[in-house]
Design a protein that fits this description.
This protein is an alpha+beta fold. The protein is built from 5 helices and 9 strands. It has a domain of 120 residues.
Amino acid sequence: MRGFFVHGYNQLPERQTYTDEDIEGLGLLFVIDLLDDDTGEVRQQTYIRLHVPTGLRQFTLKQAVGFAAARAEARWARTPEEKPVLALFEALLKPALSILVYLCCDNRDVVEPPVVKPTRKKRKRPVQRDRDPFFVEVGWRVGPRLHAARRAAGRVTEGDGVPSGVQRAPHQRAGHFHRYWTGRKRTQEVTMFVEPHWVNFHLLPEDVDPITTVVPVDPQRHDPLRRRGLRSRTGKLSKALTYAA
């Protein structure tokens, strides 16, 4: 997947999908590379348009995949086998939904230009100016810290002995989303992103350096450069795209 665009959608064509407050939900336009099965080189690019059930208060990844499949373009509905298509939709929606949830978190690490307030002239109604396109800087605060964590290596500080009972081994916990209930009678819901961190850091052996708090992943499953495990992934993708064609 090269990336994706986010837009609004609805069933009535006369409604604007970007500014109408009554849009039915969000649509995602994915741009993906088609790789050669033998060389792994990019042959061409294509796009897939999927819809997300944002009208629901809560939904799972499985529900999002089913929602997208029910509203997918006609070429995907004509495929003789459903499993490869659903697997492809899940592979696309899983990281995309994670990014969208992060961007909606109250502590998201972004820098966004301020909104231009409408100008007011004498005896005239306020003039609403369209907002110019802009880039949102993401990771300006967390990014440098993660890079510094990869470079720096520290030693374990002196700590107390292991208490009695069951004690979890030291490990790195991945970044994740957490919902908190705040306000009067805990009625206001806030979504926060918890950064990667160590658990039971004081139990780490002295000969082990905590080089990073970034949880390593299997390169065969998560390869940003898409250079490993090409046959296993491109086979499923090519099969799904072949059915769609």
